[in-house]
Fold this sequence. Notes:
Helix content is 61%, strand content 13%. By secondary structure, the protein is an alpha+beta fold. Among the domains are: 3-247, Rhopdopsin 7-helix transmembrane proteins; 544-718, Histidine kinase-like ATPase, C-terminal domain (Heat Shock Protein 90). Helix 1 (3-25) packs across helix 11 and helix 21 (590-607) runs antiparallel to helix 23.
Amino acid sequence: xxxxxxxxxxxxxxxxxxxIFVYLRNRKLFLNKIWCLQCFSVSLWxxxxxxxxxxxxxxxxxxxxxxxxxxxxxxxxxxxxxxxxLVEQAREKRALLFVGxxxxxxxxxxxxxxxxxxxxxISHFAFGFYEVPxxxxxxxxxxxxxxxxxxxxxxxxxxxxxxxxxxxxLRYVIFASVIGFVSASTSxxxxxxxxxxxxxxxxxTIYVFIISYAIVKYRLMAITVVxxxxxxxxxxxxxxxxxxxxxxxxxxxxxFDVFSYSFSLILFLLFVFAAFVFPRVKVLxxxxxxxxxxxxxxxxxxVFYNLSKTVTQVLEIDDLLEYIVDIIxxxxxxxxxxxxxxDSDESKYEIRASHGFNGEIKNLLxxxxxxxxxxxxEKNEVVIREEVEEEISYDSRMNLINTKMMELxxxxxxxxxxxxxxxxxxxxxxxxxxxxxxxxxxEMLKALANQASVxxxxxxxxxxxxxxxxxxxxxxxLASLGTLTAGLAHExxxxxxxxxxxxxxxxxxxDDNEFRNNFLNLTIEEVERICRLLTELLEFARPSExxxxxxxxxxxxxxxxxxxxxxxxxxxxxxxxxxVSGLPKVMADKEQxxxxxxxxxxxxxxxxxxxxxxxxxTRFLEGEKKFVQIEIKDTGKGISEKNIENIFTPFFTTKDxxxxxxxxxxxxxxxxxxxxxDVQSKEGNGSSFIISLPLNPEESDNGQDCQLSEKEFxxxxxx
Length: 719
């Protein structure tokens, strides 16, 4: 075999593999499909050229020559099509492509099998047989240069585009095209002078590799790196295939005492094809076989796979654990399941979810210093009670594990390890059918444990942070109450002084009917005012679970103003109220809305100068979505630009002794109600807080949902 044939053979294998690889990377992309077809055409041309070179007789060489042109005829038009797709002009140039492919079919059917195209083949000692061109062969030679038009379009697109990634891709597609067409054009040399070999035709394989690499790796590296990788991989393939083929030839010579290049090449190609296809066929047959003969097992694996994706998205720890238990029961069918999770004190593992237990469930407890928990944390392995019992005879510690597992009704204990800490344990009893756990079930359970440990730890932290958020809200309420206390004491003391004065005068003027009537009316009025103040104060201070119900925003504002107006009187502020009559009710938590309004109004009071004004206005916005809007505006000092962007950030404050939680909590509460709170302010010109609440949060997508806003609040707080 000559070295030219070996080079073409290697290029054929390389082009074929690259075509399949590019196609499999993205089957839906039309660019990949066109390039795959072009690689197949190049591969067929290379293979045919190789077989012509190793043919023994003239007829065999002529046959393979017809075969190689089955690929060579389509290469120019597939290349042009590829370039047009790359510059996004294939649709507008489809008439040109239609004519091109039509001409290729005519050339294939009408010319390729005619002596007018290739009239004969001649043998050359260096590179085997080569064709003798017929009278119309020059047409194919001219068609070969058709892709130059495509290269010109690539250059124009490279100059036009401003996208760096696209520019880089076009740059080395152009570079690869020049290498490919210059090297492939040397295959015409022997047609002009048989003594001149096709010196660089094999190197057109580099063109195939570079463009394949460009398609697969869209975020491209430097062109020098691409060239180095191309050359490296090309020679690696040569170093792999050539020795293997020589071994086949040598084996044939030793076994049959004869060389047959065609037979050896076909045999070698079959081996290569088998090596390439067998792993994929094996995977396919394995999957199909399991789907047919082990359908339940495959279904269970799919369920566990979906579970692994789901558990990391659930933040409510109780929901997460119940979901895990439910999946285990449905897929493995065990009698009892329990999940123990590390408690907040991190001293013991408490039962948080279970199935199959009766009243004895409260007794399920695993302490952090128990030998079983320490063993699982150290080993991070599944503990199987049957194996533990076998080891008791030569390891007395196993008896401690066995006893604890019996207490937990556990045949299998799965450790849930996160950051080398045991955060929980999944305990499984015997299976319903009395069978043993299979190897695949253990593998699925281990995969589940890995995912569940991360999810449970995240849920635990989320639960702790959410409780911290609740404590912060209550602390903010208490801070507001502290601000109001002095003013409310004054509000309560004034009417009591009036009542005391009347009581002191009553014995002297008891017979005065007018005095007694005035005293009675005034006393009733002042006592009712005190009762209202105390009622609002108690309602505001009392911890309560959030309850969404229809509330009148005007009424809520009025009650909040009653609590806060005495703070305004200290600065001689005037509060202007402008409520829209007939304002629609909104679905909201009344106490949370009170907390928001009180925070904003107290901030307005504190930011205002003496003898200033505060404007409180409500309005109804009716559009695609219906909102109630509340604006609270003051005439105070305003907020600087650099502080506005941080105004809702937890712990950010410009006030001495402030916590920085008030407005951040307001922001979070409004988000939970799918609303928005915005601030408009200019330093020295006061501030305006605008709160927009949808009539029904469940029907609005204006804000984030409650769970997401909690996450955002926690992340911002931790940050």
